[in-house]
Structures are given as C-alpha cells and as structure tokens.
Amino acid sequence: MIRNSALTRAWRKWRNDEDGSVAVETLLMVPLLSWAFLSTLVYFDAYRTEAIAEKAGLTIADMLSRESGYVNGAYLDGTRDLLEFLTLHDDSPELRVTVFYYHVHGNGNEHFHRRWSRTRNSTKPTLTTADIRALGSRLPPLSDGERAILVETWTEYDPPYEPVLATSLNSFEMETFTVISPRFTSSLCWNNDPTEDPTKELC
C-alpha cells in the first residue's frame, strides 16, 4: 500500500526524470533556500536574545528596588550570577549599579549627583557625578532630593552559523539601561561590611 502511494509514485517520477530541468533547479534553489532559512533563524535568535537581556535587566532592577537592607559586595556578586543565569548566550555578562539623586541648589541650579556606583565583572568604570550629569537626557525627571537606582548590563552576542552565512549581523554587545525608584525605602544603601562599621553606609 505504501509502495503504491501518491508520494511513492511522485518520488519515482522525479527519480526517473531524465530531462535535467528539475535537478538543475533543485541544485540552484536548495542552497539559496537553506541560506534564507538559516539567516532568518539567526535574526530571530538575535531579537530573542535582546528581549531576554532586557527582561533580565528589568528583573535585576526590580529586585534591587525591593531591597530594604544593605547591599554589599557579596550581594552584588550574587546579583551578577543571577544575571548570568537569566541570559542565554553570554556566560560572562557585565553589571553596573549606581544610586543617584536630584538636588535643587539654593542658587537655582539643578543637578544629578551620584551617591554610589559599583560594577561586577565589568571593564566599564564606576560612574561619577559628572558621568551621571552627562546622562541627564536619558534619566527621568526627579523631585528635589529624590533618589533612584540605575542598573546597566552588557551581554555579548555571537550569531550562530557565522561566518558561513556571511550575513551582515556580526558579534556585538547588547546593553540595557534601567532606572527605577526604591519601593520600600528612600534609597538603596551600600555598606560592604555593615556589621563591622555602620559608618561605611552610603545611601
């Protein structure tokens, strides 16, 4: 029954065709179709990885915004490990956390000020007050004295099947930039060893 099926008859007809037109067209089109299919997968994978990186950055920012205690070096190490778990392609993502505030001076000048900034597994430097002010166009408006948390992540993406496909999508770095306000306290506080010296607290 299977031997006499329509699919079997079509296969035999194609196999026994000796005019060569089908074979030549197949030879020309299969590589092109394979390239188009794999290229589509690469671009889909890049957009998917970017979406996951954005969600990972938002997850880290939301976690930090809910913290009512101290943040220290061990806490940020664990946060970086969580970022690595949440991302797909990069087993060594970079993290930078900065707490800043907005202040209206008596002379009428209004400026952003850094309170503290720390990095984990990053070649990027910690942010200074000058850096925060340079990012002013990317920061949301705050009221006088209000504090916020800036979470930045960097993830390396290497497209699969390259350079075989020779698409224009090369390896690049995905960056996330998330600003969020503390939920349960006025500020996220840094203290590398609060049990030893509470005066090291930076809020």
Give the topology.
Layout (H helix, E strand, L loop, with lengths): L5 H11 L4 H45 L4 E2 L1 H14 L7 E11 L5 E11 L8 H6 L12 E11 L14 E9 L8 E2 L13
Helix pairs in contact: 2-3
Question: How much strand content do the residues show?
Answer: 15-25%
Q: Give the N-terminus to C-terminus distance in angstroms.
A: 79 Å
What gyration radius follows from the Cα positions, in whole Å?
27 Å
Number of strands: 6
Helical/strand content category: alpha+beta
The number of helices is 4
Question: How do the SSEs run, as a string of H and E?
Answer: HHEHEEHEEE
Main β-sheet, spatial strand arrangement: 3-2-4-5
The percent range for helix content is 25-40%
The stretches of 5 or more residues where confidence is low (pLDDT under 50) are none
Mean model confidence by pLDDT: 84
Largest beta-sheet details:
4 strands, antiparallel
CA-based shape: elongated
Description:
- With 203 residues, the protein is of the alpha+beta class.
- The protein has helices at 6-16, 21-65, 73-86, 129-134, and strands at 70-71, 94-104, 110-120, 147-157, 172-180, 189-190.
- A four-stranded antiparallel β-sheet has the order 3-2-4-5. A two-stranded parallel sheet has the order 1-6.
- A hairpin with a 5-residue loop joins strand 2 (94-104) and strand 3 (110-120).
- Helix 2 packs antiparallel against helix 3 (73-86).
- The longest helix has 45 residues, at 21-65.
- The N and C termini lie far apart (79 Å).
- The model has no long low-confidence stretch (mean pLDDT 84).
